[in-house]
Amino acid sequence: MCRSSLRKSYSLWCPNEGAMIFFRRPKCKQEGEHMQLRGHTTTFQMRLEISEYAAAGWNDTQITMAIGCSVWTVRKWRRRWRKLGPVGFTSQMGRPVTGPVSTFPHELKAAILHLRQLHPGWGPMTLLTALKTDAYWQDQPLPSRAQLARLLKHAGLTRRYQPHHDLTQPPRVPLSTPHQEWQMDAQGIMRVEGVGKVSLILILPRLSVSLREVTSSFGCQLWA
């Protein structure tokens, strides 16, 4: 039998009220049953009563027997009431909302946003690669690509996806004379020793003509 069940009623002296308060304790069916409400959700009224009893000078054990909940619950809401007042009685389920990459240093978040502003075309993967190659951040824990994507979205630095569409092509016209249509091909920038960076561009007519006609159209002279 639970030892506390031997006493069925209790009396407590309340200094602030100047009176003796009597209350009855329910009998426990088995040892430790008076703690069976541990982990259960408390109502706002119960939390308010905890604060009122705490303001009257009651300890956690006395409030536990009066309310009928566990001592851990009383201790939790009593500490929250001391720290925040009645505002702290509101429940907050789950992890506090702190924003993306909140578990990383604030300097890292600022560096990511700064890189994005300098390079608007960089996505999460490019930003992560830049951080891994940076001498300051490469040896420190870094967020994942998904975390960086959430950070960019939270900061409003993302753009809506625009599906690719083929460009409208003009109707083909049959070629009948030389120089009626030209074709241009270009090569990417390459470095030439003694010259620097160059880009080769080749322009030729679509209709086959002699090499002499091509050079004469540009005002050049063909050498044998």
Biggest sheet layout? 2 strands, antiparallel
Low-confidence blocks of residues = 1-8, 26-36
The largest sheet has its strands arranged as 1-2
Helix content: 25-40%
What is the domain total for the residues?
3
Quote the beta fraction: 5-15%
SSE string, helix = H, strand = E?
A: EEHHHHHHEEEEH
Mean pLDDT: 76
Total beta strand runs: 6
Contiguous helical run count:
7
List the helices and strands and how they pair.
Blueprint: E1 9-14, E2 19-24, H1 44-55, H2 60-67, H3 71-84, H4 106-118, H5 124-133, H6 145-154, E3 182-186, E4 190-192, E5 196-198, E6 201-205, H7 211-217
Antiparallel strand pairs: 1-2, 3-6, 4-5
Helix pairs in contact: 1-3, 2-3, 5-6
Q: How does this model look, in words?
A:
This protein has 224 residues and is of the alpha+beta class. It has 3 domains: 3-89, no CATH class; 106-154; 182-217, no CATH class. Helix content is 33%, strand content 12%. The chain has helices at residues 44-55, 60-67, 71-84, 106-118, 124-133, 145-154, 211-217, and strands spanning 9-14, 19-24, 182-186, 190-192, 196-198, 201-205. The strands form 3 sheets. A two-stranded antiparallel ribbon has the order 1-2. The protein is elongated and about 110 Å long. It starts with 8 loop residues before the first strand and ends in a 7-residue tail after the last helix. Mean pLDDT is 76; it is low at 1-8 and 26-36.
